[in-house]
Structures are given as structure tokens and as C-alpha cells.
Hints:
Layout: H1 2-16, H2 26-46, H3 50-79, H4 92-99, H5 111-133, H6 135-148, H7 152-155, H8 168-178, H9 190-211, H10 217-236, H11 250-257, H12 259-276, H13 283-325
Helix pairs in contact: 1-2, 1-11, 1-12, 1-13, 2-5, 2-8, 2-10, 3-5, 3-13, 5-6, 5-8, 6-8, 8-10, 9-10, 12-13
Amino acid sequence: xxxxxxxxxxxxxxxxxxxxxxxxxxxxxxxxxxxxxxxxxxxxxxxxxxxxxxxxxxxxxxxxxxxxxxxxxxxxxxxxxxxxxxxxxxxxxxxxxxxxxxxxxxxxxxxxxxxxxxxxxxxxxxxxxxxxxxxxxxxxxxxxxxxxxxxxxxxxxxxxxxxxxxxxxxxxxxxxxxxxxxxxxxxxxxxxxxxxxxxxxxxxxxxxxxxxxxxxxxxxxxxxxxxxxxxxxxxxxxxxxxxxxxxxxxxxxxxxxxxxxxxxxxxxxxxxxxxxxxxxxxxxxxxxxxxxxxxxxxxxxxxxxxxxxxxxxxxxxxxxxxxxxx
Length: 326
């Protein structure tokens, strides 16, 4: 699922560079958020220590983000390369703030990582509430955050491109894993398989419809609902549903593994591809060529960063956790 989300973000941005469109690629980001909430809930179920949790998130998020910002800074100093209509500031302080995910003007897509940082205390509080008081106060928190997603000052509270509207998707994902929703049928009948197939199919169709529309609080709510339905069916539903077989393709599992680095680097791949390709094709053809060229550029770069930056630093974090436990 992460693999499809990462590749679809690239597709959205390739289309946005080829013709005027209201679709922004926010829907796949909502999927990432719900998945993160689901997986982080599992992590907290194993070890609810907040210090351990925060350390793990730091080793997960910062190394690849810092590497990306430093690469862009080096590319700007060496070749004048930058992304966007106007060059951002590459002053040391701004580079430092971008590397720490406080700002995202050097690599615009990193706004979502700022939201992930904001989500850390929200997830910790939600998990603590769930363990002590059950699901109801956490659902109240979801309702409050969803209501705030309609209020502009909250949505743009952190400035720049950062959008807090989908923050509650993390909490919904947490509830999916941690028992805030009724468990799936352990021995699915034929009717249960049919219902699960219908739910997954409907979620995919609705997700596609709302993803290509202007992103508002309403569309984000639908995207969160659809992402949650897919995660729930994939994690707890009947095995080997035909509608979910595309998620088991080896190539998409590969993109799922490198999805974080791919997300960070795909706009660089797009920028390079856009400089290499002529813009005299029809918009659809240009978008397709731009997508394929950026995919070919981004994939090996993302694999290298996953292999040389992400995994080693994650292992360092885990070794510290093991040492502390020992």
C-alpha cells in the first residue's frame, strides 16, 4: 500500500507539471498518515515507553530528511539547482530548520514530515488514553481534530505549505490497530468475504474519485475513511482477496520498502526529468513521459538512500534500544 501511495504521488505531480489541475496528491499522503498511525500503534503496544518511541521516530525520520536537504543544498551551490518557481533561501539557518523538519521550503513535499513530527505527541496521548480509558476519548479527539480541519487558521497554523487538516488520520490508524474498532471475523464465511471485497472495492473507487478533486476537509475525511477501510481489510480481513492481490506484487512491495526515500526524492527526479524532456508534446503524453523518466531517475536514488542511510540509522536506533533493554 505504501508502494502504491509513493508512486501515485509521483503521478499526481507529473500531471500537475503538465497541465493545470486541482489534484495535488494529498490523498496518498493521507494513506501514509493512516498507515503510520496503524503501525506506530503496534510499536507502542510492544513498548509504550515515550522516550523509546520518540528516539525511534527520530532515527526513522531525520537521517533521510537531513540527507535530502544537504543534497539539495550541495546541488544549489554547485549547479544553481533548486525546485519551485523561486529559489528558497539556502542560508545556514534555513538549511538547518529544513533538515530538522521545522520548515519545508527547500523540498516542498517535506511539509508532510512536519505533520508527522506534530503527530508524535498526538499519537502518544491517544495511545495512553486508549490504554487507560478505552476508545471513546480517542474518538472524541478524532472528532475534535476533524472539526478543526474545517478551520483555516488551524490548517495553516505552521505556515508554508504545511497542512494540519489530515492530522487525525494518524489517530484513526491507531484506533484500527489498537482495538478502537470491532475485530474482524476470525473464520470468515463466504458472505464475509463478499462484504470485505465490496468494502475494499468501494474504498478504492471512492478514493480515486476524491483524490482527483480539490482537496478540502470533506475530501480528506473521505480519504481517511477509504484508507482506513483498506488497511482494516488488508490487516484483519479474509486472506487472498482478489481485489487486494495487486498489493502483493513484488514490485510494489519493493516500492513500499523504499517509499520514504522515494517520497523525499521524487520531486528531484521530476525536476531533472522536466529539464531533460521537451515540453512540446500533448499534455497527457508529456505527463506520461515525465512520470516514466522521473520513475527511472528516482528509483535507484531512493534505493541507495534506503540502503545506505535509512536502514543503517534505523539499525543504530534499534541497537540503542536493545542496549537500554539489556
